[in-house]
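User: Sequence in, structure out. Go.
Assistant: Echoing your sequence, followed by the structure tokens.
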Amino acid sequence: MRKKLIITILASILITTQAITAWAAEPTNETQPPHIMLDGMLVHLNHEAVLLDGRTMIDVRDAALFTGHLGLTSGDISALTAEYNGRSIFSLREAVTAANLQISWQPQMNLIQISSNNPNHSILPHQRQRPQADTIMSMGEALERINDRDNNLIAIEDNRIFIEREQRQVRDALNDNNIRGRSRNYTMPEVQLLRTREMLSNQLAAMDYNIRMIKEGNEMLLRSNLAAIERARLDIIMLEAQKALEENILTLTGLRHSLGLASDTELRDAEQSMARIRSNLEAQRLTLADNNLALNNLLGLSAATNLAITGLTWQAAGPGNLENHIEAVLDEAPTVALRQLDLNYALYMQFSYDRLLLRDEQEDYYRYRGRRQDSSTVIELRNEVNLAGRNLDNARDNIERQIRSAYNNLSQLAERQAMIEADLVAAIQDYVETAVLYMAGLATRIELQGAELAILSQEIALEHVMINSNMAMLSYEMPHLN
């Protein structure tokens, strides 16, 4: 309380100098434009409102502070705009009424309260300004573009044409020689044809799994890039809010220093804090530019393209039952399926000696379990089967480890989200108390700005967790990409 009293006295001194009226506590009487609260947050106008015939008139240059929440377009606002003393203004009540939203007047606090369709008591949408885009793509269009340009996918499709042609040739040769199955003994050339048929069939199946992994990898790459862009954009919003607060603090500290109320150390600390934030802000802007450039390169767009991706959401569903998910993924994971193909082919190679080459001892033929059978070949085939089996087991074990790791990550993020949500509730409550003091003239604009920053900090932290949860869910659903 003593600290608040000191701040109030100091603000009163500085008000007399008329140097800090933009952010000091404002008087509340009927001659002053009222405070405006939108979804529980005080709206800070860049241009002073006008009281005209008992109506609060807002400068059209501040329309952007309301349009996103009121569901009105700039055209809607233009229809309500009038000229007054060289300014374009519009009636706040008429705009709110046109949007069919609730508005109330609290005379004891000189306060207009507006409730929009935003249920989250969030200040982040008020401050999030996305750049104008000259190119717009949906997530599906972006992925299709990436896949169409992927050299690996192009090479696979080219190779598929060659293999399918070779497969038809082998099939024709088998039909011409009346070789239909595995039920009789075959000559070595016939066995080679059957092995080639098996190999080509495995290669085509492997292509399908590889195509799936490449496309899923491209989706992961696109989402990772978009996540990096969104993180950088959120960090810039936070740093810009911190910069605005620090600028006011630095101004106040400079005025206090000139009055002999702040030491050289306090002024130097304020200047250094401002310099750090400016440096961090510039670094984040460079990071955002680099990430946007990487996205344009990924999509084959020019570096100067301003791109917007639609249909992207960072909401992630819960992981569900872990053991059931592991079982389901192991049945369809492409890395496991590829190792299963290897094992199947190794078993077929062994089978070709075990069954297909059973013949009487004749020149140019082999007899399994007979003297003419090369024992080293049998051992080699057995080793190939064992190796393929171990590789399959390792692939399954690796997938399970990746799933469990992603599950633990999701659990930790869920705990982190719960903590942030609790901190956000506390920050909102603190803001409400500070806003009441501010409207009563017992708190400064800097204190209110600090309370807003605390909410914004938790909201951005929550957005970060949602992005990270979405990426962790992708790893949980597609563990073979890790």
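User: And one key feature?
Assistant: The two ends are 54 Å apart (CA to CA).
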